Amino acid sequence: MITPSITLRWLLVALVTFVAAAGTARAVQPDEILPDPAMEARAREISHGLRCLVCQNQSIDDSDAPLARDLRLLVRERLQAGDSNTQVRDFLVARYGEFVLLKPPVSWSTFILWGTPLLILLGAAAFVWRSIGSQARGTAQPRPAAELSPAERAAFDKLMAERDQPKS
Amino acid sequence: MITELGHFALILAVLVAAVQMVVPALGAYQRDARLMSVAEPAALSQLTLLTFAFLALMHAYVTSDFSVANVATNSHSTKPLLYKISGVWGNHEGSMLLWVLILAIFGAAVALFGRNLPATLRANVLSVQASIAVAFGLFILLTSNPFVRLEPAPFDGRGLNPILQDPALSFHPPFLYMGYVGFSMAFSFAIAALIEGRTDAAWARWVRPWTLLAWMCLTIGIAMGSWWAYYELGWGGWWFWDPVENASFMPWLAGTALLHSALVMEKRDALKVWTVLLAILTFSMSLMGTFLVRSGVLSSVHAFAVDPQRGVFVLAIMVLFTGGGLALFAYRARELRQGGIFAPISREGALVLNNILLTTACATVLVGTLYPLALESLTGEKISVGAPYFNMTFGPLMLPLLLAMPFGPYLAWKRGDVYAAAQRLFVAALVAIAAIAVTFAVTKPGPWLAPFGIAIGVWVMAGAISELLFRAKAGNANLEEVLRRLRNLPRSVFGTALAHFGVGMMVIGIIATSAYQTERVLLMKVGDTVDVAGYALTFNGAKAGQGPNYKEQIGSFTVQRDGAPVTTLQPEKRLYDAPPQPTTEAGIYNAWTGDLYVVLGDEQTSGGWAVRAYFHPFVRFIWLGALVMFIAGAVSLSDRRLRVGAPQRARRSPAAVPAE
Lengths: 168, 660
Description:
The complex is a heterodimer of chains A (about 170) and B (about 650).
Chain A: H1 2-20, H2 37-48, H3 66-80, H4 85-96, H5 111-136, H6 150-164
Helix pairs in contact in A: 2-3
Chain B: H1 2-30, H2 33-36, H3 39-62, H4 69-74, H5 81-86, H6 92-113, H7 119-143, H8 167-196, H9 201-232, H10 243-268, H11 272-295, H12 301-306, H13 308-336, H14 347-379, H15 387-404, H16 418-424, H17 426-443, H18 450-471, H19 479-488, H20 491-516, E1 518-524, E2 529-532, E3 535-546, E4 550-561, E5 564-569, E6 572-576, E7 582-585, E8 587-591, E9 594-603, E10 609-617, H21 620-637
C-alpha cells in the first residue's frame, strides 16, 4: 500500500504547485529582467507571493503600480546580492510586516484560517461515520411519512403516471 | 416623466410585494384559499411593475438623460448603444434593480407554472419570495435609488469604466444574478417546507430544476467573467482568488453540492434535513456575495466604516434571512427527519462524499475571504490571504473529488459495488495512464508532475464517456443498436455525463495552461523576431488610430510557424476619452493546442516597444468546459421527468419558459 499513497502525495503536490504557478506578469518590464534566467525565475517565484501593498489583492508580479515595480527591483537587488529566497522574504516582512505575504504564515493568529478546512473535513467525516453507525445499529428508525390528503394523493398519482409513460 | 413613472412603479412593486409577503402566508396558515390566491396576481403584477421600472431606467440610459444622477455618473453620450444598455446594470443602483427584477421573474414563474403544487406550499413559497423582494426593494429605495434626479443636469456623463465596455462583460452580470437570485427559489422552498413541517420527493423534484437553472446561469456567468479577465486585463490570468470572484464562487460551490444532494432526496428520500439546510446556506452564500461586493467592506474595513449605510442595510438583510432561516431550521428540522437508509458504498454515499468535499471547499473559500477582515477588526493585525493560500487548500480538496467522480454514476443506489465499478472503469483508467505517458513524451523536458494532473482531467472525461457507453451496453451490440439505446437513455443521464465531461475539460485546461505556458517579456524594435512556443513572431511596428470613444495605438505582428505564415496579430493600447483610462486589447491567435497571446506595452525612450508574448496551451478548455457544463444543465432540464413544474407547457406559448 506504499505506492498508492506516495502517488497521491505527488499528485497533491503537483496540483498545488501547478495551480500556484498560474497567472503571470503583465507588469514585469523588459528592463527589469535579470540576465541570469535561474535567478530571474527565483525572482518571479518570490514576486508571486508578495502583495502589492497599495493594490487590492494583487501580487507585485501582476501589478502595474509604481510601488510594485520598486518592490520587484528590490527583490532582484537582494537576489543579486546573494540572498536566499527566504532571506528576501524575511527582509520584506521586516520592512512591511506580514501583510506583504499573500500566503500568511501559520501562527496563533492564523490558526483558524489554516485549520478550518481540516476541521470541517474531520467534523463532517465524524458526523457521517456516526450516522452510518447508528443506521447500522438500527437506532435511526425512520418516522412514518405524513399521510397525503386525497387531493394530494390524486396529484401524486398523476405525476407518477406521467413519469412512467414511455417516452415518445 | 418616464423616469418618474419608473420610480413610481418600483415603489408600487415593493408595496405589492409587501402584500404578497403577508396575505398568502396568512391564507396558508388559515387554510383559506381566497387569501392564498392573492399570491399569483401579486407575483405577476410585481413582475410587470419591475419590468416597467427597469425599462424606464434603460430608457434614461439609451436617451442619455443626464438629469438622472445614475445615468450622469455611469454613462456618456458617445458610448456605443450596447454599452449604454449594459451600463444600466454596470453600476450599483442599476444592478440592484436587475437583482429584484430577476427575483420577480422567478416568483412569477412559480405563480404561473406551479399550479400543480400543493396550494399551501405554493402560497408559502411565494410569500417567502416576496419577503426577499420587500427587503431588497426597500434597500434600493432607501439607500441606492437609481431614479434620483440631478439639478442642474450636467452637460455630459462621466462614462462607464472602459475595461467594462466589453461584450462578454455586458452579459456577465445578468447571468451571475440569474444564478444568485435563482438560488432564492431553493431557499423559499426550504423555508416553506420548514413552515409546513414536511418535505417529500415531490418537493425535491420541484427544487431541483430551479437549482439547476440557477447553477447553469452562475456557471456561465462566472466563466464569462473569467474569460473577460483573460483577454481584457492583459496578461492572460483567468482566476485570481479575488474576494469579488470568491463571492460568486461560494454560491457556486454550495449550489453544486445542493444539486447533488437534492438528487439523493428526490430519488431516495434521504438526506432531507441536509438538503433543506444546504438550500438555506446556498442562498446565504448568494447574499454574502451581494454583501461583500455591494458594501465596500472588501476594499477596506475602514471604507465600510466611512459610508456604512448600504453595507449595514445589506448586512441586516443577510443576517435576517440567514439567521431567520437557520433559526427556523433549528426549530423545525426535527419534523423532517426520516428517509431511506443506505450503505456507505452506494450512489448516496458517493454523493455524500461530494457534498462533504464541496461544502468544505466552500467553507475554506469563505474563511479565506473573510479572515483578513475579521482579524483586522478584532485585533488590528493586518494580513493578506491571497492565491497561494487558496491553491494550497482548495487543490487538495478537489483531488479526491475528481478521482472519485467517475465512480459515482457507476454505483447502485442503496448498496454499491466498488469492485464492479472499478472493473467498468478499467478502460477509462487505461486511457488516463496513456495520457500520462503521452503528456510526458510531448512536454519533456517539463514539470514532471503536471502529466498526472492532465491524467486526472482525462480520467474524469473518459469516465463520463464510459458510463454512457456502459449504459448503452456498447460492449455486446452492433453500432445501430448502441445508438438506439443511447437515444433512449434519459436526458438527465446525458446531462450528468456531459457535466462531468466538462469538469474534466476544465481540469485539463487549468493544469495545462498553468504548467506549460510560455512567456516572453522583451523589448522589440521594428523587424525583430521572437520565438514563442514554436511560433515566430515578427514586429512590424505600431500606428495610431481612433475608435468611437477612445484613441489607440495598434501594433502589428506577423506570426509564422515553420516558415509558413499563420496570421497577423494586432494588439492595441487604448486610451478612453471618458473617463480617461488606458486599457490593453491583447492580440490572440487561437489554435487547437492553445492561444498565442500578444500584448503591446509602452513605447520605450530608447526606441522600440515593450512586448509581452505568451503561449497558453489548452487555455480555452477552461471556458469550453464551463460551456459544456452549461449545455449539460440544459440537457438535464429538458428531461421530461424534471418537468413536473410545467406539465401543460405545450398549450401555453412555447416561448418565455424560464425553466427550460
